[in-house]
Amino acid sequence: MSMNITEMKPREYTKKDKINAKHETLVKGFDSGKTLDLEFRKEQLRNLYYAIKDNEQLLKDALIKDFHRSPFETEFLELHGVYSEINLAITNLDKWAADESLGFDIRMMMARPVLRRQPYGSVLIFGPWNYPYLCAIVPVVSAIAAGNTVLLKPTEMAPYSTEVVATILERALHPSIFQCVTGAVEESTALLELKWDKIMVTGSSNVGKIVATAAAKDLTPVVLELGGKSPAIVSRDANIKLAARRIAWGKFSNSGQTCIAPDYVIIDDEVKEKFIAELVKALKTSYPNLDKDTEDWTHIATDRLWDRANKLIETTKGKVEFQWGKADKASKFYPPTVVSGVELDDCLMGEEIFAPLLPILSVSDVNTQALPIARQHDYPLAAYFFTTNSKRADELLSRIRSGAAVVNDCIVQGGSAAIPFGGIKNSGTGRYHGKFGFDEFSHARPLLRQPNFIEALLHGRYAPYRASNLKNLRFLGVPSEWFPRSGPVRRSLLSRLVNSRKVQVLVLIFLALFLKSRV
């Protein structure tokens, strides 16, 4: 693509008749059967990989233009993940798509049951504005690897990034398997009126509810990647300097506009002041002389979101401990801001913050008091616990419900193709990245091939029903209880022997020969 950002203009929104035509193209593309060919899928992913690689600078420039995104953050937080996902899918696609043997069942042994993964069909993917490359392209990669055709609706809130993504993907991928629609609410509504085989959205909880409601009319399965208030819990025994540095990075990267960023901190009273001092030191070290022109600092995406962040700071009852720089609405620059003395009823503890504002709640003992605080904002995308006591971390995190949990770091789980990404309840449903994304966009269909020659074993299932037949079927279908009515539930040596697969196979062979002799 021989283009630069000065030549790029946000494209016009897609008309409804074109939306319908694009949908029809994808349905016909899937029905053609071309996506069933694994080599075709790999070639498409290969083309996409190099199209992105050849336009790296254009992708970075688009986000600078949209909201002053640091080029370093664009590459490290987004493009590295995209490259990793495509590489992993191409490398492992044959293995991922292979039939998977199912667990042993003596009744089904001859039918050789397997799981065969089939594509859903034509899928609709809504991309977000905060990570318009990683969270839009990676689902497309997963869906294409699984053999689907894809319609991508990128965000309208980052128009230059959307134009670049749409242009790159449209040129790299065959039009019969990929289409793109640009627009806002009206165009999204038109898309949701069409019949899809699966829908994925990355966005707010409110958007997730709208999509889920629309999908319900056709019982269309959905993947919802939403958000929530992810806590960072800092114990008195934590490495405070390291915890402050890692929380500062996780919270303030992309100017706090990250769905898995630590939303607030719960900390032991006795280490609060030290933590704040280290947090300030980490911010000043990372962003010396921070202002609206600093390249390394990302700005707020829209005027509305800037106003929201500013109002939260004007309204909070907490103490603004630190604000590194002067906010500037004209450029949508908002500096990292740390607020202490925050209570549960504070405005900062309402919805997910999604801005460079970090409230700190101090308690006398996080081990006993963090759980009820965290449960006030249940089911976030992530929970973070900083401690040197792994047993204590396991005890607390086992009782905090979240999409993911990390000890002594934050947000790292979102950039790995080896780790499933997804929420729970109000932070989302479904999961993707790597093999998990392939599985999410595939239907795992059980396949059995029952041979004719075992009819001697099966004839007892037919009417007229006889007690002798039921006795034989019970022998095959109902295992003997190896566990007692009371006391410890442990297998005895005899029970393990009787329930071994080899013994069961020998019994099956003997039974087949015995029944055959009687027929």
Automatic annotation (TrEMBL):
Keyword hit for Nuclease: no
Gene Ontology BP term (one): aldehyde metabolic process
Family matches, as InterPro entries: Ald_DH/histidinol_DH (IPR016161), Ald_DH_C (IPR016163), Ald_DH_CS_CYS (IPR016160), Ald_DH_CS_GLU (IPR029510), Ald_DH_N (IPR016162), Aldehyde_DH_dom (IPR015590), Aldehyde_DH_NAD(P) (IPR012394)
Organism: Wickerhamiella sorbophila
Active site annotation, chain numbering: E225, C259
A matching Pfam family: Aldedh
Gene Ontology cellular-component terms listed: cytoplasm
The organism's place on the tree of life at top rank: Eukaryota
Oxidoreductase found in the keyword field: yes
Taxonomic placement: Eukaryota, Fungi, Dikarya, Ascomycota, Saccharomycotina
Protein name per UniProt: Aldehyde dehydrogenase
GO MF terms, alphabetically ordered: aldehyde dehydrogenase (NAD+) activity
Domain Aldehyde dehydrogenase: 17-443
Family membership: Belongs to the aldehyde dehydrogenase family.
